[in-house]
From TrEMBL:
It comes from the Bacteria. Coiled coil: none annotated. It holds the Pfam family HTH_26. PROSITE patterns: HTH_CROC1. InterPro entries: Cro/C1-type_HTH, Lambda_DNA-bd_dom_sf. Signal peptide: none annotated. Residues 13-62 form the HTH cro/C1-type domain. This is Helix-turn-helix transcriptional regulator. The lineage of its organism: Bacteria, Thermotogati, Deinococcota, Deinococci, Deinococcales.
Length: 68
């Protein structure tokens, strides 16, 4: 899939664990792993909003499009 999820980069910049991130966003750590590993087929805008609020970033900081 040409969409790359950069949650791990943002977590590393903020020195935040997956568990803390999951709790603050309201996701399970398993669902965060699905997002981080690029296995998610979709993401709700409300989830994207929560991730951006927790990480204090823009959607473009979390998602990147590349050609196949």
């Amino acid at each position: 899939m040409p969409i790359i999820v950069r949650i791990d980069v943002q977590l590393a910049r903020r020195k935040m664990s997956v568990g803390e991130f999951a709790e603050r966003v309201g996701l399970t750590p398993a669902n965060v792993a699905v997002l981080k590993n690029g296995r998610a087929k979709a993401v709700r805008f409300s989830t994207l909003d929560a991730m951006c609020r927790v990480l204090d970033c823009q959607p473009g900081d979390l998602l990147e499009w590349t050609e196949d």
